[in-house]
Amino acid sequence: MDNVRMLIVDSVQHAKAGHAGMALGMAEVAYFLYRHAMNYNPTSPNWFNRDRFVLSAGHGSLLQYVCLHLAGFQSVQIEDLKCLCKLGSRTPGHPENVVTEGIEVTTGPLGQGVANAVGLSLAEAHVGARFNKPDVAVVDHKTYCIMGDGCAMEGLSNKVASLAAHWKLHKLTLIYDNNHNTIDGSTSLGWNTITVDNSQGNLEAFKNSLISAHSETRKPTFIRVKTTIGKLSKNDETSKAHHGTFDDDDVKKMKQKVKWDDREPFHVIPMVYSTIEYQQELEWHSKLYYYQNKYPEEAAEFKLLLADGMLPGWESSLPKWSMSDPVDATRGYSGKCLNALAKVLPGLIGGSADLASSNQAYLHNFGDFKQPDGLVLHGGGLIPFAATFLVFSDYMKNSVRLSALSHAGVLYILTHDSVRIGEDGPTHQPVEHLAGLRAIPHLLLFRPADGKETAGSYKVAIENRNVPSVLALSRQKVAANVEGTSAEAVGKGGYIISDISDKELLPEIILIGTGSELCLCEASANVLRKEGRRVRVVSLVCWRLFDRQPRDHKELVLPSSVSKHVSVETGSPLGWKEYVGAEGFVIGIDNFGSSGPYSEVLKKYGFTEEIVTQTAKSLLAK
To answer: What is the pTM of this model?
Structure first.
């Protein structure tokens, strides 16, 4: 423990940055987990049946880096500890799963890691229920999570703790770093709750708490560990120890306390390095071999799931719509797509918080994830979807952002996507939300106009397993099936849905729309064409995909020689100038919406065929 703490001190002093307080206080706990409790193989960090560890208190990342180094992970060497918080290093200020092997999930915004840990444990329970047999368990691993006071203060932690207890995720152990701060509320939320006093380095008590956690078969375990923040420092037990460097006198006295005076910075005693022989993975492969021979059909599906694979031809299951089909809301088209995909994608799993019928995100003829006895589940944990109203995406913004940062291919089904929801008023009418979500790096936001574009959006979203996707969908029926839309063209992000008849000429004006407003653009274009105007209509269903297209495609769709553009979208105008240009006009909303019949609300904000047509004529007259 002295060596672990000195590596923490040396790293912070060398970097002149970092959060040492929690790392010093929880050193025994983390080291014991990596040395004695968890099953993993540092030479095979992605071994499927490894135990998972999540540091929800992500500011304590240095503690995890030290443990990874001592455990033998090649991703963290002494030189990496010396590069703590440096640009481009493998030891950033908070853990990032795409930067450092051995980090399961990216954490930092407090409470998010607790939710991630519940999700990992849910996935283990779910896949285990599908594939384990009475005589062999090929899915059998635990999830550990360290949280702090900041995590406990976030409502998210309480919500997912309730779910974990309800689902009886007994292989989940949540360890609370109780460094003498307060926590609101009771911890008796259906959890197996244990208190350990580790302020004096009592490893035996912590070991016993883990034995209790492992023997629990009905509840997740919450271990409340009393620690000393900034242990060894003169600032211990104070908020001053939370982050920052130590003064020279403090470092000198810390070294004296543990007889470290004569050792160079970043010294490691050889015996501290892990010498465990990692037999667990070999034993698991032996189980898997037995499983393949006895249960070949399930083994084939299981291995496909582990490889992030999908059944060949899955995309052909997506519904196809024609102009003669009855019109629906895009949420209705989405529900049909989702249920069609559920039959061919065994890894599809998700839900909605009390809004499944409104979001049309319910998987028909499939069971819910329920408490044991007898988990009867459908779909795997590898293609998760979540559904709510677009306006409520603010509640989940940190989670959406982290999924993009973590390269996690989550599907977010966000319905009721505009002021068209009418009478519910501005509290439920999203305005700035599309712009805010589009600003998240890597995230794909689709706003489909009809059934064809909805199916195309699902295809692209599911194909992109390393980025999250948002499907922004309407509550009300769209005005019409739009002739010229294409499921395949969605992959381009933006494309021409109708154009002038003479291909030798350029359009005089281009109308650009998304979602429900694409019908409006097409209706206005038809009026203008009857008056002899050369009008093109473009669907910009996904900005980011369009921006990634080769210059030739973008020039084909939006020629630089055509300066007159009108964009039409019931949301914030922010960002649209990039597409309409300096001489273009943006029809958007820069207020909070209004309560009233949706047709009247649309008229108030300029979303009618007449206003779009008049706007286009005004531009053409210049």
So the answer is: 0.86
